[in-house]
Amino acid sequence: MKQVSVFVFILLLSTNLVSAGPAASGICYAGCAGVTVACFAAAGFTFGTVPGAVIAATPALATCNAAFGACEAACMAAFFLPTP
């Protein structure tokens, strides 16, 4: 039993403390939203006020929306990666 306690103690001393990246993913989400707002504005629309049917019918908005979805999905990786 004493050997196990010593092993666990050494293991705890040899590891570094890291936390997952909720701050990193939040920054990533904000960046995605900012780029999407600019994309919608370039197409002449306001992000967040356009119905889904209009987004699907307008090729520029559909591209902006697809890129936004891909960007948000990539941000999930930032949530789970450890950050110092």
TrEMBL record:
Signal peptide: 1-20
Keyword Signal: yes
Keyword entries, A-Z: Signal
Highest taxon of the lineage: Eukaryota
Annotated organism of origin: Parthenolecanium corni
Name used for this protein in its record: Cysteine-rich protein
